From TrEMBL:
UniProt-recorded name of the protein: Glycosyltransferase 61 catalytic domain-containing protein
Phylogenetic lineage: Eukaryota, Viridiplantae, Streptophyta, Embryophyta, Tracheophyta
Comp. bias (Acidic residues): 36-46
The keyword Transferase belongs to this UniProt entry's keyword annotation: yes
GO cellular component: Golgi membrane
Protein's cellular compartments: Golgi apparatus membrane
Organism (species): Urochloa decumbens
Gene Ontology terms for molecular function: pentosyltransferase activity
Key word Protein transport present: no
Keywords for the protein's UniProt record, in alphabetical order: Glycoprotein, Glycosyltransferase, Transferase
InterPro entries recorded: Glyco_transf_61_cat, Glycosyltransferase_61
Length: 450
């Protein structure tokens, strides 16, 4: 894959860009060895007649509008003379037609999980300042160091950035909803910038933008854009509501985008004939902290004996995203105990099957909400195996006459922390192999043909 081209024309590497330099972005990404090197930004870009381009020149009136009514995220959009100053995390909207003194400053955290106060405090706040046509000496915005001729999208790589489910739900799907419409001609700017995060998701980011993601936190450059989004459009957990998408995006189109980003070759599961000798392929996601599958070797054996080719995938396997995307795409079934690893269903081919093992504790509803409900809109099939009271390590901690076993909902009524500490983080699963084998036989029959 070619390295992304810059959406700006840098000045000499050791010098800051001169004020008010003009930038034009290429129509498509090119590799660094195809570029002719940095260009003096003071010269601007020339058209075919040799004249300097006037791309991204400020217009007479700018617009700023915000939506704070969405349950998932707060967002602001702006167009006109938009200036983004990285280090102070400030966006200036100059000559705004919507300027009013009482709402001239707006702040938001560009992360799509706004109802969780604790995690939102980990996300850097971005300030938007609406400047009147004549602000006066004390209110003048900083001069442009670099001009871009593409829109900007400001988001955060903070929050739950090490959890794959949350990365997809809170960042990647919202980025797709917000930036995909520009077909690569959009500049992404990240607050709470983490190089390892950027590197891990580089193929998705490169598919969304032809230009490297800008680290807003570290640079003092004032970048000027014709328009910008601060915050990301978001609809629901691991999903898209087509009626809310202004471009008609769906989880089917998102998965097509993901397959393209990772060059995945298998778009759809073809039913396997039981007489063909070919085995359907099942990837089993294995956890190593809470909710482990304690008898995983026996589970793998049961699946193999039934007729599956079972691929065991531990945390190290799953964390190698570039490789594991291909592994998941090669499989017909993805199975695992409730947890973030199930979000790798995104890489399954269409008509694949997701099997969620639900731990003990009346967890069917929350487990379905996270990893059951999103399945059908992706063009996949969903099945679940719900553990019984005999299939939990909670038997080692609580007597069988405890409410944990006799009335799990009484634990739920004590609040989320109790549920988390006991049923989510406080147990492992020990499968009843005879029962599990029966389930696997039914699964095998369901996804194969005569």
């Amino acid at each position: 894959m070619a390295l992304a081209a810059s959406s700006r024309l840098d000045c000499a590497q050791d010098q800051p860009p001169p004020a008010d330099s003009v930038v034009s972005s290429p129509l498509s990404a090119v590799s660094r060895d195809e570029m002719t090197g940095d260009v003096d930004a003071t010269e601007g870009e020339q058209d075919s007649s040799g004249r300097n381009s006037d791309v991204a020149a400020p217009i007479l009136r700018s617009k700023l509008s915000c939506n704070f009514s969405n349950h998932q995220s707060n967002t602001c959009t702006m167009e006109g003379d938009v200036r983004i100053h990285g280090k102070p995390a400030t966006v200036y909207v100059v000559k705004a037609s919507t300027y009013l003194p009482e709402n001239s400053t707006i702040k938001l955290r560009p992360y799509a999980r706004k109802w969780e106060d604790q995690v939102m405090q980990l996300v850097r706040e971005v300030t938007m300042r609406s400047i009147p046509p004549a602000a006066g000496a004390d209110g003048d915005p900083p001069e442009c160091s670099v001009r871009h001729d593409v829109p900007a999208v400001v988001f955060s790589t903070g929050g739950y950035n090490r959890n794959f489910f949350h990365v997809m739900t809170d960042v990647i799907i919202p980025l797709y909803l917000t930036a995909r419409e520009y077909n690569g001609r959009v500049q992404l700017l990240a607050t709470d910038y983490e190089p390892k995060w950027i590197a891990k998701y580089k193929f998705i980011l490169a598919a969304l933008s032809a230009y490297p993601v800008i680290d807003m936190d570290s640079e003092d450059t004032v970048r000027c854009f014709p328009s910008a989004h601060v915050g990301l459009e978001s609809h629901k957990e691991l999903g898209i509501i087509p009626g809310l998408s202004r471009n008609g995006y769906t989880m089917v189109t998102f998965r097509e985008f993901i397959r393209s980003a990772y060059s995945l070759q298998r778009p759809r599961v073809a039913p396997v004939s039981r007489s063909s000798g070919r085995k359907p392929r099942l990837v089993l996601i294995l956890r190593r902290n809470s909710r482990q599958l304690k008898n995983e070797a026996e589970a793998i054996t049961a699946g193999t004996e039934v007729g599956f080719e079972v691929v065991a995938a531990g945390p190290d396997d799953v964390s190698d995203l570039e490789r594991f995307a291909g592994v998941a795409n090669s499989c017909d079934v993805l199975m695992g105990v409730h947890g973030a690893g199930l979000a790798n269903m995104l890489f399954l081919p269409d008509n694949g099957t997701v099997v969620q093992i639900i731990p003990w504790g009346e967890l069917k509803w929350p487990c379905r909400h996270s990893f059951g409900d999103p399945v059908a809109p992706m063009g996949l099939r969903y099945l679940e195996y719900e553990a019984t009271a005999e299939e939990t390590t909670l038997n080692e901690t609580y007597p069988r006459d405890h409410a944990v076993f006799t009335e799990p909902l009484a634990i739920h009524r004590q609040g989320f922390d109790k549920v988390w500490n006991i049923f989510i983080n406080g147990q492992h699963v020990i499968l009843d192999i005879k029962r599990f084998r029966g389930f696997m036989e039914q699964l095998y029959q369901a996804i194969t043909t005569e």
